[in-house]
Write a structure and sequence with these properties.
1164 residues, 65% helix, mainly alpha
């Protein structure tokens, strides 16, 4: 399903250069590139990304085909046939191109000289005797994929105009034609693409002039014999599908008269296969049957010029415009082309068929009409096209019966599949001119329903197909009927197309409706404000739903004839939509459009919404209530909503009635979906009543307050946010009634919970209710309590409540006059604390990312406050920027972008802030001709940030940021960071490297540090100690900072833990890996002995995962340790012990292993 909030379907409209280079290099390097599994997977994934837009590959397809064929070796003339591995791999890759671009596109670029005929046939015959099992260890190559390429090549070569007898080989007993047919029959049941190509080859061969007499009838009877197996209990459906496809191909390629003679027999033999309605057959079988019977029907009827067909006359847009300029009337309806030769005209009142053929033709049409209601869309498409083709050869009366069958059989029931099939058929009939003007009114009625078709609980894709078919009808109408005929329907058609172009949830439908509108504007005499509207809702403009609902609809609404239909469309079809985001979009659209016609919106639109809200469906009620809130908010902003006005449907009586119903539904402890929607409905209703000036009793307001407090304590985030929104409006009312009551709640509930409570839902309630208080009730004490709670290290895990508290601090204090009551120093400490919060949850991972994101937003609001400009020192700003740089180095792309934007905002703030090294920052964050926020998505951002690694002011923050993200990145980002760090260490002096160790020691030994920070630092040391700090191995004890870190690792390893504590076990594992480095150090080192003893204790412990991982790391170091430290014999013994010990096995065996290790390490 598509993402409705942003661009839908906006994939690249070009073949990306890097992809083109990757594909071409892959094809050139066959078979080596195929054998490299990683390279093949990269190629395969990128290539199939173009399957939906294969036309992008057309320009390079000839070159790729040529490269692939250069790896294929065919047998030489009169030589033995040998198939090498490279040829098979090349043909397999060619089959991938056929799958993506279709065989018709690929075969155009295959060599088609007749000399290839024998070689390809021999290749196919030899391949049939081969066993490819085990040829590829990944089992990717199959005979069907190879045959797909070979038969595609055979198809173009065998299509030569010469008699096939000329190519018979002296060495072969069989004729070339027989060999082709045998090859086709042997591979008939291959995959669907190969089977389609085989059917094409076979049908063209037996209908060739030199083969038709001897082979066509014989082949048809062979097919009928095979298809007759369908009546048996046991049958091969793939074989039946193959021969049905072959029959369809023959009836398409062969001469009509000869086929008409045998058509009746074929229909009789098909039997039950024609009953599409009652049988649940294989879908492909139904498609082939549909194609076959329509072609049989066409063989019964000879092509004719139909005088009864509606003919508009002018078919060219250029002619239409010229006639409009010359004030001509374009009403050339029912005018046929001048027929100079009367003998060419057909008798319109009779069919040139036998009685038996007419009887079968009626059965064919009945089957096709049933096919329009088939559950499968491919069958419906085929049936619609078949009806259009056959109708082109029928008499007027017969054709009217077909059209009546479509109207009567598809649109009487409210069924999505039958409506889709009916719309497809009507589109075909309209485009071909078979739907006469007297049925135009009926079709427009159907079109209006189909173009907005959406079942409440239907399948989204099927609903989309109905709307798509309806736009096809709209397009066909423009090309078929004259302006005079369409004039009574222009307004209905224009408004439907415009509303669908703007408001449909699917990009394809919006674009199709836009194209149909453009076609009508160009080909009809008049479409209201058509040229102006075309420029607004063009192909590109309608790409984004957010733009359609917030900008384009407002531009279109300036043309009065479209405003009311758009408002009605949103209320009728989009408000209450099954997809919540679409309902939200409808609310946005209503908010903007209501302002443009206030009277209609206040009287008609609001009344419709209020009636729609009167329902037992709580979900629908909630969605409609959101729409009512948007409408009333928009009217209130225009100062055009007065509850005392007579024409206002939102009366006091109606409000009281609605309140009684909503409170009854919402006042419950149940937390099921229905109750949640009822509570959300009440929240929006409260907001509406409080903001529109409705006067109610004190008891109602206090009851609402009690309920909203309960709602903010719910699990549902949406409900908490809705209740918080309503509380902000309600608190103003309640404060005016009883300030004493509010203050009592603040002291005894909200602040009490904030100070002492440790239950997250209760804290959510406390914080959200505080954030809803009016400014007059907020004070310094409340602000300080929020700051203390946010930084309370015993409640760091209550992330939702802390995020709410920080948001409250930002919106209610920092961004208001209340900022002056906050402690400047405490506020700065709180913001820096939050942006450096790396709290992790074992189940949810980096949960602190939410508070870091909110902290970044709060910092920007803080530094931009005019009252603080005099207090902002360079050190404070430097600290903020440094913490933002740490986030800009992180893995989370969203945080990287937000942090980069924040630094940009600080650098461009006016008046300017005191910023150290401002020019160095400007080089990175203020770029010309680039959107740096987009740049911060890609891995090359680390190259930009690495410019600050040696900066005296910000270098520490960049280094710390890279350390914090070490081990969390993957793919190209991980490689980039590793390369940057390695290069930096290589170009740094020993003293500078030791300074980095000192920085890490200071951070890791801080009190109550997050496990995420410890893990990141230890992972960093594990990665780079051996690469960049080899100089400490000789005299480890003299490097005090690294010794302190190793002592801390010993502490972590020896730390007692609960059996189920996963966090401790993770730290033990990382600490053990760092301690393993000491194996390489001088054996006289005291810290080495302590470290190795701690390692042995870790291996003896109960944490088998940590033991296993650390044993692998020890083994890696033992392989490279100097012989002077561990001799070869001991080294081999230790490696065998570590490799063979089962760490979750017998404790005595583990104890024996560690004792031997102690002896080897000389620490026993």
């Amino acid at each position: 399903m598509t993402d409705f909030s942003e661009a839908i379907g906006l994939t690249s409209d070009i073949l990306l250069p890097e992809h083109e280079e990757l594909f071409e290099k892959y094809f050139e390097d066959i078979p080596q590139s195929y054998d490299d599994y990683t390279r093949f997977q990269q190629f395969f994934t990128r290539l199939y990304g173009y399957k939906e837009k294969s036309f992008l590959l057309d320009q390079v397809l000839p070159k790729w085909v040529s490269i692939i064929l250069s790896h294929v070796k065919l047998a030489k003339d009169n030589g033995n046939v040998g198939i090498d591995r490279g040829s098979l791999i090349a043909l397999y890759n060619l089959s991938l191109l056929i799958d993506i671009c279709s065989y018709k596109n690929v075969t155009k670029y295959l060599p088609h000289e007749v000399s290839y005929l024998e070689k390809i046939l021999s290749f196919i015959e030899t391949l049939g005797t081969m066993d490819l099992h085990g040829f590829d260890k990944y089992e990717r190559i199959t005979k069907s994929s190879i045959n797909r390429s070979l038969f595609a090549w055979l198809y173009i070569v065998a299509k030569n105009p010469f008699s096939l007898d000329k190519f018979d080989s002296i060495q072969s007993k069989e004729t070339t034609a027989n060999r082709i047919l045998v090859a086709c029959s042997m591979n008939m049941c291959s995959d669907s693409i190969c089977s389609k190509i085989i059917n094409k080859i076979w049908s063209q061969l037996v209908t060739r002039a030199d083969q038709i007499e001897a082979r066509m009838n014989k082949t048809i009877h062979l097919c009928l014999e095979k298809v007759s197996d369908y009546s048996n209990e046991i049958y091969n459906i793939n074989e039946i599908n193959g021969y049905l496809g072959l029959l369809a191909g023959i009836f398409k390629e062969g001469p009509r008269i000869e086929l008409a003679n045998i058509g009746v027999e074929v229909i009789d033999k098909l039997g039950d296969l024609m009953d599409l309605e009652t049988r649940e057959d294989n879908t492909l079988t139904k498609v082939f049957v549909t194609k076959l019977i329509q072609r049989i029907g066409l063989s019964f009827l000879k092509p004719r010029k139909i005088k009864w067909r509606y003919c508009r006359g002018f078919r060219s847009l250029e002619n239409t415009l010229k006639s409009r300029e010359n004030n001509e009337t374009i009403s050339n309806e029912n005018k046929s082309d001048n027929i100079s030769n009367k003998e060419e005209e057909d008798d319109e009142d009779s069919l040139d068929c036998t009685e038996e053929q007419i009887e079968k033709l009626e059965a064919i049409l009945a089957t096709l009409l049933n096919g329009l209601r088939d559950p499968n869309s491919n069958v419906r498409n085929s049936a619609a096209k078949g009806l259009g083709r056959i109708t082109s050869r029928l008499t007027k009366d017969f054709a009217e019966d077909v059209v009546n069958g479509i109207f009567g059989g598809c649109f009487e029931d409210y069924d999505t599949t039958s409506w889709h099939g009916g719309c497809l058929a009507l589109a075909e009939m309209t485009y071909r001119g078979f739907l006469l003007p007297d049925r135009l009114s009926d079709m427009i009625d159907i079109l209006e329903k189909a173009i907005v078709w959406e079942e409440a609980d239907g399948i989204i894709k099927q609903d989309e197909a109905v709307r798509d078919a309806a736009t096809f009808i709209s397009w066909a109408i423009a090309r078929t009927y004259s302006p005079d005929l369409l004039k009574p329907f222009v307004h209905r058609l224009a408004t439907r197309l415009v509303t669908v172009s703007l408001f449909d949830k699917e990009l394809n439908i919006r674009r199709a409706a836009s194209a149909a509108f453009q076609e009508n504007v160009g080909r009809q005499g008049y479409f209201p404000s058509g040229i102006d509207i075309i420029h607004i809702i063009d192909y590109t403009s309608v790409s984004r739903l957010s733009v359609c609902y917030n900008e384009l609809c407002v531009k279109v609404a300036k043309y009065e004839e479209y405003l009311k239909p758009m408002l009605d469309h949103l209320v009728e079809f989009k408000v209450g939509h099954q997809i919540v985001k679409m309902n939200d979009r409808a609310c946005e659209g209503l908010y903007h459009l209501v302002k443009l016609n206030i009277t209609y919106s206040r009287t008609v639109i609001l009344e419709k919404l209020l009636k729609k809200a009167d329902t037992v469906n709580c979900c629908l009620q909630y969605k409609v209530m959101k729409a009512i809130e948007s409408v009333i908010r928009s009217l209130t902003e225009e100062d055009s909503f007065d509850v005392l006005e007579k024409d206002n449907p939102f009366t006091l009586e109606r409000v009281l009635e609605m309140n009684k119903k909503l409170v009854k539904e919402a006042d419950t402890t149940s937390r099921n979906k229905r109750s949640t929607y009822a509570k959300l409905s009440l929240s929006y209703f409260i907001k509406i009543c409080c903001e529109c000036g409705m006067t109610l009793s004190d008891g109602v307001y206090l009851k609402w307050l009690e309920l909203l407090e309960n709602f903010t304590e719910e699990n549902s985030i949406e409900l908490r946010d809705g209740a918080s929104m309503a509380s902000k409006s309600l608190m103003e009312k309640v404060a005016g009634i009883s300030t004493i009551e509010i203050n009592k709640r603040i002291e005894k509930r909200y602040l009490h919970y904030l100070k002492e409570n440790r239950f997250d839902l209760t804290l959510n309630k406390a914080v959200l209710m505080i954030s809803s208080l009016p400014n007059s009730l907020l004070n310094e004490n409340i602000g300080n309590e929020l700051i203390d709670f946010i930084q309370d290290k015993t409640r760091l895990h209550l992330m939702d409540s802390r995020v709410y508290a920080l948001n409250c601090l930002k919106e209610r204090f920092i961004e208001s006059e209340l900022l002056k009551v906050l402690s400047f120093t405490k506020t700065i400490e709180c913001l820096n604390f939050c942006i450096n919060d790396f709290t992790c949850d074992p189940a949810k991972g980096d949960v602190a990312r939410f508070i870091r994101e909110k902290a970044i937003q709060a910092i920007i609001s803080f530094v931009k406050q005019p009252m603080l400009y005099d207090k902002m020192s360079s050190d404070i700003v430097c600290k903020f920027i440094g913490n933002l740089l740490i986030q800009a180095c992180g893995k989370n792309i969203n945080l990287r972008q937000i942090a980069a934007q924040a630094i940009y905002d600080i650098l461009t703030t006016e008046p300017s802030l005191p910023i150290l090294e401002v020019e160095a920052l400007r080089k990175i964050f203020i770029l010309k001709d680039f959107n740096f926020c987009e740049i911060f998505v890609y891995a090359n951002v680390f190259d930009m940030l690495s410019q600050l690694l040696d900066n005296n002011v910000y270098g520490f923050y960049i280094r710390y940021g890279l350390v914090m993200s070490s081990g969390y990145h993957n793919g190209c980002e991980k490689e980039k960071i590793n390369q940057i760090i390695t290069d930096y260490f290589e170009n740094s002096s020993i003293d500078k490297r030791l300074d980095i160790i000192k920085e890490l020691r200071i951070e890791i030994l801080k009190k109550k540090i997050s496990s995420r920070i410890i893990k990141s630092i230890l992972d960093f040391l594990d990665t780079y100690l051996i690469e960049c700090f080899e100089f400490i191995q000789e005299d480890l004890d003299s490097f005090k900072d690294i010794c302190e870190i190793l002592k801390y690792c010993c502490f972590l390893v020896n730390l007692k833990q609960k059996p189920s504590t996963s966090k401790s076990s993770t730290l033990k594992e990382y600490a053990g890996k760092v301690l393993s480095f000491t194996i390489l150090c001088n054996e006289s080192s005291s810290i080495r002995k302590k470290s190795l003893e701690s390692l042995c204790k870790l291996l003896e412990g109960t944490n088998e995962v940590a033991s296993f991982e650390v044993s692998k790391k020890i083994t890696e170091y033992l392989v490279i340790v100097d012989e002077d430290i561990v001799n070869e014999e001991d080294k081999e013994t230790a490696i065998n012990l570590l490799s063979n010990t089962v760490w979750d096995g017998d404790s005595k065996a583990i104890q024996t292993t560690t004792e031997k290790l102690r002896r080897i390490f000389k620490i026993s």
